[in-house]
Specification:
Number of domains: 1
Shape: globular
Strand content: under 5%
Oligomer: single chain
CATH topology: Hydantoin permease
Number of strands: 0
Bound molecules: tryptophan
CATH class: Mainly Alpha
Largest sheet: none
Helix content: over 70%
Order of helices and strands: HHHHHHHHHHHHHHHHHH
Number of helices: 18
Structural class: mainly alpha
Distance between the termini: 51 Å
């Protein structure tokens, strides 16, 4: 527990921190993005590669970010500046700040759909679904209506700004404590219903029996990008959260618990989605960004009290998204407070508005405006394109540079000194140093090079 003498704020307790960091990690990345990516990338083989990425790359990078944050007590740009003054490294932090704004912009759009689904569920749209087309029509109607899509995006962004205005402890910590366990319980219920549906075996085998013949360089990039996205890595969010930690707070077990909780939720979301998916005629795993929104109402409809559980689930998912989006905004806000001397209020209002405006094309590109719904050349919606550029590439490049920085520039020796302030020297620390110096940069680099070779 740091005394927040600097006025930057600090966590109230270590449990509060772990919950807040888990709150940042657990969000749409687990319940929406993970099944979407797994479906697009061939199922079980992707899942396996994903798990390896979390264990051998994500977890070490998470520990590295927390260590840099706790050491410097700074936002990402300030942190690099402190450890390597007047070098180009500060631009890695700057890339993180930019990435944060862009991810927030479309994250808020999808979170807005979740809010819309609370209302749709309560109003009975998903009651007694006669044919799955009804869900598709409701979904495309919701996301394709420009007024509704923009209003929901605005509402979610406003909520994010409201919480971040309250500051670290008052705002972020309080939300996460009670609500995450409830989300977890409803997810378990969903899994039970999904795997007991007639014909669930097909989905289970898609999710669990790897078929490596379809694996390409893109599969690896998607899996790794997803690991970074889900753990909130590669843009300094965990540097920022780590900066509110004190020297006594246990870094290693925080990193392990956050990764475990995050991965568990993602894997469970897959168990909820895929068995049900294959029982719905006309739906393919390659559906894309709409996948979970098209599948979930069908499962709730087959659960007694589905209206109640469905609305509750989407409400909790919106809150999980909120505890993530606040970490995206907090990075950017912390930068403008620390480095530019802005007040918290000014930073929140200006940057929240910027992220809202950047999200407008993502909100309109799902049917409302045809040109944004399928961009020329890349053949994707604006939202999918931003997600690929920033959610996959930018985070991956950020994580590569961070592991090079900690491994070779700042040095794992100094990092281990910082870790030792709260954790005794163990094999884990030494293994971590090896992974950060060698495996992480080599594996991330290899995946990027391979992808470039594949596309040219
Ligand atoms: N990890 C969050 C999720 O899974 C999203 C998120 C929050 C994030 N902060 C981030 C992603 C920072 C990348 C970087 O929903």
């Amino acid at each position: 527990m740091t005394t927040p003498s600097s006025g930057r704020g600090a966590w109230g307790s270590r449990l509060g921190f772990v919950l807040a960091a888990a709150g940042s990690a657990i969000g749409l990345g687990n319940v929406w993005r993970f099944p979407t990516m797994a479906g697009k990338s061939g199922g079980a083989a992707f899942v396996l590669i994903y798990l390896l990425c979390v264990l051998f790359i994500g977890l070490p990078v998470l520990l590295a970010e927390l260590t840099v944050g706790r050491r410097t007590q700074k936002n990402p740009v300030g942190a690099f500046e402190r450890l390597a003054p007047e070098t180009g490294w500060r631009w890695v932090g700057a890339l993180g700040v930019l990435t944060g704004v862009v991810i927030l912009s479309y994250y808020s759009v999808v979170a807005g759909w979740t809010i819309g689904y609370i209302v749709e569920t309560l109003s009975g749209t998903f009651n007694n679904i006669q044919s799955p087309d009804a869900v598709t029509r409701a979904f495309t109607g919701l996301i394709g209506n420009p007024v509704v899509a923009l209003a929901l995006h605005a509402l979610f962004m406003a909520l994010t700004m409201f919480v971040v205005l309250g500051g670290v402890q008052g705002g972020i910590e309080r939300w996460t404590k009670i609500l995450m366990p409830v989300l977890f319980l409803i997810l378990i219920l969903l899994v039970i219903r999904s795997v007991t549906l007639d014909g669930a075996e097909k989905g289970l085998s898609f999710y669990l029996k790897p078929d490596f013949s379809q694996v390409t360089g893109t599969t690896f990039l998607n899996a790794m990008g997803q690991a970074f996205f889900s753990l909130s890595l590669g843009m300094g969010a965990m540097i920022t959260y780590g900066s509110y930690l004190s020297r006594r707070d246990d870094l290693v077990s925080s990193a392990v618990w956050v990764s475990l909780a995050d991965t568990l939720i993602a894997v469970l979301a897959g168990f909820a989605i895929f068995p049900a998916l294959f029982t719905i005629p006309g739906l393919e795993p390659t559906e894309g960004a709409g996948l979970v929104f098209l599948v979930l109402p069908n499962i709730f409809d087959k659960i007694p009290g589905g209206l109640f559980f469905g609305a509750g689930f989407f409400l909790l998912l919106a809150i999980a998204a909120l505890t993530s989006s606040i970490s995206l905004l907090e990075v950017v806000v912390a930068y403008f407070i620390d480095e530019k001397g802005w007040t918290r209020r000014r930073a929140v209002i200006v940057l929240g508005s910027v992220a809202f405006l950047l999200g407008v094309p993502s909100a309109l590109g799902n049917g409302a405006v045809a040109a944004l719904s399928r961009l020329p050349v890349v053949n994707q919606s604006f939202l999918d394109f931003m997600d690929m550029l920033f959610g996959n590439f930018s985070l991956t490049i950020g994580a590569l540079l961070l592991s090079l920085f900690v491994g070779w520039r700042w040095g794992t020796g100094r990092a281990l000194e910082e870790i030792r302030l709260s954790n005794p020297e163990t094999w884990f620390g030494r293994l971590w140093a090896l992974l950060i110096r060698f495996l992480c940069p080599l594996a991330i680099g290899a995946i990027l090079v391979n992808l470039i070779l594949e596309t040219i």
